[in-house]
Amino acid sequence: MSLPAAWSPGSRRRLFVVLLVLLVAFAAGVSDADAQHASTASKSAATPDRARYDVTLRADADGGHWTGRQRVSFRNASARPLREVYLRLWGNGEDGCGTPGAPLPPVTVTHVEGGTPGPLSVDCTALRISLPRPLARGARTSVAFDVSLTVPGRNARFGREGAFRFLGNALPVLAVHDAGGWHLDPYVALGESFYSLTSDFRVRLDHPSALKVPATGLTRTRPGRPGRTVTLSVADRVRDFAWAAGPFRTAAQTTPGGVRVRSYWAPGTSAEGVRLNRTDAVAAVDRFGREFGRYPYGELDLVMTPGFGGGMEYPGLVLLGTTEEGSAVVHEVAHQWWYGIVGNDEYAAPWLDESFAQYANARFYGWETRECWSDVSWPDDDAALTASMAYWSRHRGEYHLVYTAGPCALADLERTLGAATMARLLEWYAHEHRYGVSTTADFKKAAQAMTDVDLTPFWKAHRIR
To answer: InterPro entries from the xrefs (predicted)?
Structure first.
């Protein structure tokens, strides 16, 4: 998740500890639901893996309703036979199983083939599909289903702003099973609940020609039926697929490092803000590619509107609320590595993507961080930087610590190890976990391997548990 809409290139030069506390405003309306959460297991145990999604959807006249068919094939990577899978219907997170005015949830799945669906659970964000026979280790199978997506009326990652539609976390995706069981955590609007393995997507989006459709992956368009266009996307080794639709204005440029940056903005978005976003995104994607490993997806889409609440990251696409001072574009670009390429369970350990993305953001702008840890105020002695979203959902006013204390802790680690050693650590760590899943324990072990100094007191002092 990004920084609030008040963030800008002008204001971001101030002390970010003060600025980012504004994130609290973004937390309004979050459910206080909690769930027992199993610890993240090793990469080898996570399943189903090597998934491929083949999706065909058709939009209505304004892009607010999409219907079609989706097939997902997958492999069982675990030692035990796989008897079921779960789909996460994250688009139902805010509305649950429907409202009096809209009795059906925004995302519905019907006509399932390849398994038997059970009832929706976890506020209609989880659908269990029993497989017809146990899937042995290393074997593949697939399930297919009709899907209907109705974009909610709110301005949100799955929502709308004027004539523009945002379809983040709209497509059903496979839940993850590991040594701790199925990860079926509740949706949180405060941050993210999402945890997925990298997969390949082949998506066909049929829409009115008046709508531009930025999307995850390498995209191309071709004529459809009269008055319609088909946007085709190929995205390999990504954790999710998102798109937007609307009468955007567009521009494109290629970075010196060879990444195609496509910009889409709503009329009425500040021209200066669009310019700043494009400039910073081009510089950031190449810089982070040098620091954390080459950006692998070839294309990055910036989707900018004046009223979107802050920003939101997806593989190859970011949603940005943009003012004359720009937006949180660098933070969102950093998420292409910290969550996208180097994955994590965002419910169990949100600091692993948000704190790391914000640390990269701070380094990009050259913020002074030497004393920032001393400015951090903790709610109680038990609070930890590494807490899960279950904790932050109960302490919504403190969630900003993931964005403020987190980069301060990483900056202190840089001073402890030395700048050159910290750079080697992050480059190596990103390489070792590229397309995989990282944990706090993994990072602590990697950092300790870089120095003869016992880091135990450091982890304790910085509440990294």
So the answer is: M1_LTA4H (IPR034015), Peptidase_M1_dom (IPR014782), Peptidase_M4/M1_CTD_sf (IPR027268)
